[in-house]
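Z., the sequence and structure:
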Amino acid sequence: MNYVKPKKYLGQHFLKDENIARKIVESLRANNPIIVEIGPGTGVLTKYLFEKKDKNVFLIEIDIESYDFLIAQFPQYKANIINSDFLKIDVLSLINSLESNCKFSIIGNFPYNISSQIFFKVLDLKNEVDEVVCMIQKEVAERISAKNGSKTYGILSVLLQAYYDIEYLFTVNETVFNPPPKVKSAVIRLTRNKNTALDCDDDLFKKVVKTSFNQRRKTLSNSLKSIMNGVKIDDDIFKKRPEQLSVPDFVKLTNLIAGIY
């Protein structure tokens, strides 16, 4: 097998520029013993990852045709190539089978149609995943890395920035893919920050953030009515809109609302 047909329903756009592939892999900074690549496709990043002889590299590929291609290309690493859906696989069992309580890095050209879902799973694994280097849609990259006060600042911006430092590394043009997507892409790096836990209830924090941005044009006093149980709290923070709040502001807001329950 020497060719894999990109599949639209899987959001496959195969990177064909070797210089960009090498640059993405070189963007990994953490000295983790294990690296997990999501959606390796035809292995454009994979070959540079396998050059890291001191690392255990795992590939998680949902497409059986790509999986067969990767097995043919890298037969010596067959045990590390897994035909599965990253959103459903128990990654921790895979990692802990080698080394318990091990931090690991994630890398990949994420399919545009599930990139947000991947980030939500990363948040579930935040105590183990201390670095993510990925290529995603440019618009999503700008949203995730946006600071409060920006119009693109939103749910993922707050939730990810609560636990990760986010760097927008570089933009990638449409022409270096097969087939070319209709939008530009970007590479970002997420590095785990020092927050082992937020100074508030984590589940309520997520609920407050999501509820706030679901009606982002309203002030918080109006957008949060559904979880305020009719209680009004006298604090100027409720006069603001969600995009005006930093992560610490959302922590404060969460604690104010927690006092109602």
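The chain has two domains: 8-192, 202-258. The beta strands are 14-15, 34-38, 56-61, 81-83, 104-109, 129-137, 164-172, 177-178, 185-192.

Let me know what you think.
H.
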